[in-house]
Specification:
The chain is of the alpha+beta class. It has 40 helices and 28 strands. Strands 10, 11, 12, 13, 16, 17, 18, 19, 20, 21 and 22 form an eleven-stranded mixed sheet that branches. Strands 8-28-27-26-9-23-25-24 form an eight-stranded mixed sheet, sandwiched between helices. Strands 1, 2, 3, 4, 5, 6 and 7 form a seven-stranded antiparallel sheet that branches. A hairpin with a 2-residue loop joins β1 and β2. α16 runs antiparallel to α17. The longest helix has about 40 residues. The protein is elongated.
Length: about 1100
């Protein structure tokens, strides 16, 4: 919340339209120059970082004070008021009720310990999630010290110079200083359903209402059109939205509404229905079955199922003892029930997810929706943008063609933003007559076939007017800024426009120089921003000397030449009209030249212009179709956006993981195809692709959108590259993938991308994208890098694996405990009562020591080596695969069998079968055999449960060979167990705490109902060896089985298949996709 200084009014006294620190008049009643002066703001360079920091300390953060943050009391209540704790409380109450005070006291201690440990773990997780929420909060583009920076909206201060564009959320109340075709949606504030056009030069009376202040952009409103700059005059609770924050903070009611008739009345049954549903919702929230992520709800339901099984087990115990009301029978029933309760399951899941999201941040991925963590591991297809995601987004103009003059090429330099670096070559030939691919590297260095090196000054001197007219469009139909400061070149704007501006600046045609200053040559009249539907942008500029208006247009080549009617066939002095009419033949010539540039991987734009008739009045309200017509074609410019070095390895990693990568780009098909081959999205050996598949593998959006859904479904394959892609095409692509039962991730950054981001299974927004896109997404990439998507998928798979491991550990342990106790019913003493093979306190102790912390350790486990060399898992089966279920039963029964064998050996082989008298309640000489057998069983179960956690680090590989290819045949397992120190110390801690319970007098006899053992450790060690032997034999059997299954169906394993067969199997005419999934199950 904003702070109040001694010279400022409190928020309750705040006057609408005023600043945090009151101005002489409200901001809307002052010219923007006066507002900037009173706020000490700079309308060109913005605040300095030091001044911004000082103001942040003075005025406080830019928020409404509605963030609850982490609330410890709520966490404590949640720890107590949950189903699992309530079950333990019930067990404690039963224990106390029947006079088993020791058992009741131990359960009470366990409850207290669970609450304390759970509180600190949940508190840590909440703190992590709270910090992640702040990372995913809206950002704003501010200018500080002349450089554009993206900062969290909370760090905006009065006096900041803010730039907004279409799709951005306004971060604070702004007094506009520049507005270009700028409209905002203020429905949240004023209720106005239509966007409001803004104007920076208007000034209004003090009493003007918020809805009529057309020179103000309000905090939390959204830019729906155009762009603007403004000075922040109010932040936090001093904004207009801050004045009504209390209304916005109103929580949604959790009470189900009563269904009423049209006349507003409702019968008694409707009230009963609403109350019943509300009560059901409350119970569901309490049990956790209708809140949280799908997996959290599924595990909560599993816990309820296990609770039901626990009741059945307790009834079996009572039934086996003829339902007598003896205390020892009841406490045995309670202990058996508790053995099936997975007390730590949901808590460990929450902590694992919180830790996973924290790791994601370190890999440049911000998770906005926790369910996406579960979904990432199931992604089968990624639909990605090209520019800035697969490529660096740092464009450089590498080629240009001007009709009647020739072809210009720019040599690469180490400083792409420096217009004085890099030679310019000129060739009078058209691009399709030039060999841009030298026959040797040596020729390439010499520039053979590229023309001669000529200085920009000489090129301007040689040109009579055509180069100058081309440069006028390049520099003026352009919103980027390039300037020199402190000996270096700085840029601001879109990468595409920066590259074009750098090119024109080489020839001393810089937009800033042409449009600013007292003797500026041009003045901007109107701007028509880039539209993804028409794929063009235009500006109207007035020539200050003649007063004539000109339209300058750039955009996609096909869209620009469609509205061109003339071109120049040869160079001529300015004013000399030698225009010729545009013909279809010349349009084909333009396309041929464009395809040459595009084949080099260049993004090609067309430039055009025209003089506007003096009788036509133009403004930003003019229909752009009137402006963008009858244009004169000026030439082509080719921009190179080099692929990121990490893109090709990342795409290959996707292919190895069985994930198809689709490129959906606005570029020309040849440009997209060249980049797609370079990064590996398209197969290298395209000659193996059939003609029918080749037509589908690369398509334009026009061709794809022209197909009906049925025709799309009949395509042999879905396209890997869609060029000239529109936002609606992305939605159709997602729907087509869904009809083919694919699970897809989609990237996007613009306002129009929000429908596809919402429709995708995982919506991925770019960190530099619009706030609207981020709000529609599940995750945000802070570095806009495709490799980060792959990292997110790898992390999602790791989290999925680890959840599967600790759930398997919990359930296998439950089966082992329940199996031991239920079979133990057969051991009956002389009174006919069952003798515990494990005492109730031992069961509770095992649950506490071997479940919580080791399971958390499994949740923190690193990814297994082959995690990105297997196909995506199915979300339909989730973690409960057939392999999981069989493992759960096998491990559980194997541990139970070993524990029972240890008990039987000690009692019958070396104890004479002596079951003693009243050994469930107290120690006596006759109970020594039972107490020692019980201690032996207790030691076995404790150790096996702990060792099982280590064995589950990899569900198939041997515990002793978890790293394939390692040369450390006998010591590798030591490094593996030490790598996860949390799991290591959790297991060692459980291992060590066993001994005090066995040997401390009173505690061993009175509490745990066992006694210290000596030679019996031999049984424990032998059983431990058999445990490892059994588990390792089972894993070996699984490996052999899956390898044979894979070879039986495909003749090879996943790792032995060529990577193009794994991913491009369908495209190369084989059945690679189905075979590859089978083969993957046969991995080592």
């Amino acid at each position: 919340m904003a702070k109040s200084g001694p010279d400022k009014k409190s928020p309750t006294d705040h006057v609408s339209g005023q600043s945090n620190k009151p101005l002489t008049r409200p901001a809307h009643a002052l010219p923007f120059q006066k507002v900037a002066e009173e706020l000490g703001a700079d309308t060109l360079a913005g605040l300095s970082p030091a001044e911004a920091k000082r103001r942040l300390e003075e005025f406080g953060t830019n928020d409404l004070g509605d963030a609850e943050g982490v609330q410890p009391l709520k966490i404590v209540i949640a720890q107590v008021a949950n189903a699992m704790t309530m079950v333990l409380i019930l067990a404690m109450a039963v224990s106390f009720g029947i006079g088993s005070y020791i058992e009741g006291g131990v359960v009470a201690a366990v409850i207290l310990l669970n609450i304390v440990v759970g509180f600190f773990q949940e508190y840590s997780a909440e703190k992590t999630m709270d910090s992640l929420r702040s990372l995913s909060s809206p950002t704003a583009s501010v200018v500080r010290d002349g450089e554009a920076k993206v900062v969290p909206s909370g760090e905006i201060v009065p006096g900041d110079l803010v730039e907004v564009k279409m799709g951005d959320t306004i971060p604070a109340d702004l007094r506009l200083i520049e507005a270009k075709n700028f409209e905002t949606d203020e429905a949240l504030l004023t209720g106005e359903s239509l966007p409001v056009r803004k104007s920076e030069n208007s000034v209004f009376e003090d009493v003007t209402g918020p809805g009529d202040r057309l020179n103000i952009a309000y905090s939390s409103s959204t830019c729906t059109k155009g762009r603007a700059k403004g000075i922040v005059f109010a932040t936090g609770v001093y904004t207009e939205i801050g004045a009504i924050a209390s209304a916005l903070n109103k929580k949604d009611s959790k009470v189900r509404p009563v269904k009423r008739k049209p006349n507003g009345k409702a019968g008694p049954h409707r009230y009963l229905e609403a109350y019943t549903l509300t009560l059901g919702d409350v119970i569901g929230r309490f049990l956790g079955v209708n809140v949280g992520t799908p997996l959290q709800r599924k595990l909560s339901k599993l816990a309820m199922l296990l609770f039901g099984i626990a009741i059945v087990c307790a009834l079996i115990v009572l039934g086996a003892n003829k339902f007598v009301s003896e205390r020892e029978v009841i406490i045995y029933a309670v202990a058996t029930g508790l053995s099936m309760i997975p007390a730590s399951l949901v808590v460990v899941l929450t902590i694992t997810m919180a830790a996973g999201t924290k790791r994601m941040v370190q890999r440049n991925v911000i998770v906005r929706n926790l369910k996406s963590l579960e979904a990432l591991g199931a992604v089968t297809d990624i639909c990605s943008d090209k520019t800035g995601t697969l490529t660096q987004g740092k464009m450089v103009a590498r080629g240009a063609w001007i009709p009647g003059l020739g072809t210009y090429t720019v040599e690469p330099s180490s400083e792409p933003f420096n217009p004085t670096k890099g030679d310019v070559r000129f060739d009078t030939r058209v691009p399709h007559d030039i060999n841009f691919k030298p026959s040797s590297e040596k020729d390439g260095e010499k520039g053979v076939g590229y023309g001669e090196i000529v200085s920009p000054t000489d090129l301007l001197a040689r040109s009579k007017s055509r180069l100058q007219e081309f440069l006028a469009v390049a520099s003026l139909a352009n919103l980027a800024t390039i300037y020199q400061k402190n000996g270096g070149w700085h840029t601001r704007g879109d990468p595409t426009e920066i590259a074009i501006q750098v090119f024109s600046t080489r020839f001393s045609w810089n937009r800033v120089d042409l449009t600013t200053g007292e003797n500026s040559e041009w003045t901007e009249v109107a701007e028509f921003p880039f539209d993804s539907d028409v794929k063009r942008m235009s500006v109207i500029m007035s020539h200050n000397t003649t007063g004539d208006n000109f339209a300058f247009t750039k955009g996609a080549v096909e869209r620009v030449i469609k509205v061109c009617t003339r071109y120049y066939k040869a160079d001529a002095p300015a004013g000399e009209n030698n225009e010729v009419s545009m013909t279809d033949e010349f349009r084909d010539e333009i396309i041929r030249n464009m395809e040459v540039f595009a084949g080099l991987g260049l993004r090609v734009l067309a430039l055009a212009s025209r003089k506007i008739d003096a009788s036509v009045r133009v403004s930003e309200d003019t229909n752009r179709d009137i402006v963008e017509q009858d244009l004169t074609f000026r030439g082509l410019i080719g921009l190179y956006d080099p692929p990121r070095p990490e893109s090709a390895p990342a795409v290959r990693s996707c292919h190895e993981a069985g994930i198809s990568v689709h490129m959906l780009t606005g570029d020309h098909p040849e440009t997209a195809k060249a980049i797609a081959i370079e990064v590996g999205i398209l197969p290298k050996n395209m000659e193996r692709v059939s003609a029918e598949v080749a037509r589908s593998i690369v398509m334009t959006a026009t061709a794809f959108d022209a197909l009906t859904d049925d025709e799309v479904d009949k395509l042999p394959v879905l396209p890997l590259v869609i060029a000239r892609c529109a936002p609606s095409t992305k939605v159709r692509m997602i729907e087509a993938l869904h009809r083919r039962k694919k699970f897809c991730a989609m990237t996007g950054d613009g306002v129009n991308d929000s429908p596809s981001l919402r429709r995708a299974d995982v919506g991925i927004a770019m960190g530099t994208g619009s706030d609207v896109a981020k709000d529609a997404s599940d995750i945000v990439l802070t570095d806009d890098n495709f490799a980060s998507i792959v990292a997110a998928i790898e992390e999602g798979r790791r989290i999925f694996d680890n959840i599967q491991k600790f759930v398997l550990h919990v359930l296998a342990e439950n089966i082992a405990q329940a199996g031991t106790l239920l079979v133990g019913l057969a051991f009956k003493d002389a009174r006919g009562f069952s003798v515990f093979p494990l005492a109730p306190v031992e069961i509770v102790w095992i649950i506490m020591i071997t479940s919580g912390l080791p399971d958390m350790g499994l949740g923190f486990e690193v990814a297994v080596p082959d995690i990105m060399m297997r196909p995506p898992q199915s979300l339909k089966t989730g973690i409960f695969t057939l392999e999981f279920l069989v493992d759960m039963v096998v491990y559980g029964l194997w541990i139970a069998a070993l524990c029972l064998a240890a008990f039987v050996l000690r009692v019958y082989a070396w104890g004479g079968g002596e079951l003693g008298q009243n050994c469930n309640n107290e120690f006596s000489e006759s109970c020594e055999t039972i107490f020692k057998a019980r201690a032996t069983t207790f030691a076995c179960l404790t150790w096996f449960a702990l060792f099982l956690a280590w064995e589950l680090v990899d569900m198939r590989r041997s515990f002793f060979r978890m790293k394939p290819g390692s040369k450390k045949y006998f010591t590798q397992w030591m490094e593996d167990v030490w790598r996860n120190k949390f799991l290591f110390w959790a297991i060692i801690g459980g291992f060590v705490t066993l001994f005090p319970t066995l040997y401390i007098p009173v505690i061993n006899h009175k509490v745990f109902k066992h006694t210290g053992i000596s030679w019996e450790w031999g049984i424990v060690f032998i059983a431990a060896g058999l445990f490892f032997a059994g588990v390792e034999a089972w894993k070996w059997g699984k490996r052999v089985y899956f390898r044979r299954q894979a070879k039986k169906k495909t003749g090879r394993q996943w790792k032995d298949m060529d990577i193009e067969e794994r991913v491009f199997g369908d495209y190369l005419g084989g059945s690679g996709s189905e075979e590859s999934i089978v083969a993957a199950n046969g991995r080592d």
